[in-house]
Fold each of these.
Amino acid sequence: MTDCPRFEGEGMKYIDGEMSAVERAEFERHCAGCASCRRELDSFTRLDALAGRVKMVDPTDAFWERYWRSVYRRVERKTAWVLMLAGALMIAVYALRQLFESFHRVTFETIAVLLFAAGFVLLLVSLIRERCHQYKNDPYKDVKR
Ligand SMILES: [Zn+2]
């Protein structure tokens, strides 16, 4: 708990770097003569350093490159996608066939199948557009990886 009322409002702003140069200088002058604020600042600085040390780091590109070098991993992932896509397409074909057999009346199933089909087609178009955009803007597209 802080003994000095100034730390509550200004201490956190100081630590987070949200003060102007003038405010910073003024707060530092205050801290020079206030043991309570100095103690608080010190403990927050140590906590900050500790948090920085245990911060999770994202895997590097080199890590993912090594990971995907495994033929098994690549085949596994692609097989999973092919199986999922095949299953989804079979369900879609079945649903569309059912839809056309009962097209004379609009049912809950009809609407659900139409929404799913529209979403699927839109997603497919979106993915193709993304890939095209990515390919056109890839500065390394002529570099063999
Ligand atoms: Zn103080």
Amino acid sequence: MERPPRQGRDEQDAGKEPDCPLTRYRSLFVQRGDAYGRQRNWSRLYYRVRSPLTDEVLTKHLRGEVTIGLYSLDPSGTTRWTVMDSDRGLGPIVGAQADLAKRGIPSYLESSRAGGHLWTFWDKPVSPTIARRIIEPSAPNLECFPAGDIPDLDGYGLLIRAPLGIHRFSGRRYPFIHPSGEPVSTGKVRGQIDWLAQNVRRVDPAPHAAQLPILPTAGEHPVYGPKNTEQSPIRQWVEEHPIRDVIERYVRLNKAGVGRCPWGENHKHGDKHPSFTVYERTQRWWCFAERRGGNGFDFLAQYHHLTPSELLRKIRNGSY
Ligand SMILES: [Zn+2]
């Protein structure tokens, strides 16, 4: 849609306009305003902040003073976007973008520390499982989320770095880019938001969902509703123990976080081609052969055949 020219616009007035950059940024990326993640300094890890994501916080993020992460589900467990993640360069997602385009699904490339993210925006809230199944055929072997079939005990969905801020670990900004790698705009924040506001086309998931093969739901885990887990000791343990440190005590991982699944006996042919991956950014693991995953706590519990409360007791006794 054509926007009227704005002349003599003062940067400080921006926050007062109905279509100010923050409003546009929210409408694209923010799914819930009651909690967000905050990235620790010099780290890739986030901790959860259980207070409103105010304009002030967003502004600080866009200025690079803090770095926040956004939860991928809204409070009713649905999503307005799906993101595909490549931590092995841009190649795989540029290919996926071209394939999605052929299917009539526009998507938008954002560069990242190790590769990039490919965003698809839905024109209505959609189940994360359905959305992922729409996207996945174009994304062989890439991680797509939110993923409704990965257990998510508190209903927030995985955290993704909020676009256009500064990564606390690398100290860099990662713009939206063209497939050539060129940023879509010269402006680092405002220009990027303007470009997105003018160019993003949202996709109606319904016709794509209608074409999906019907799968049995037995193997899928429900997306749990939000629970009051304010004091959850498990979550606290997860936030304090980087997943790679936890899992590397049991599984040898390469630089990209890939290793042999410790549950190879569950696979058809063992785990000859390593199918177990640890994602440091999301602090999750995933086995591509078994199509299951979790956080570091889930891993330990399953590895040692313990229930969550048994594992918690052992952790408190200093066993792990
Ligand atoms: Zn496995």
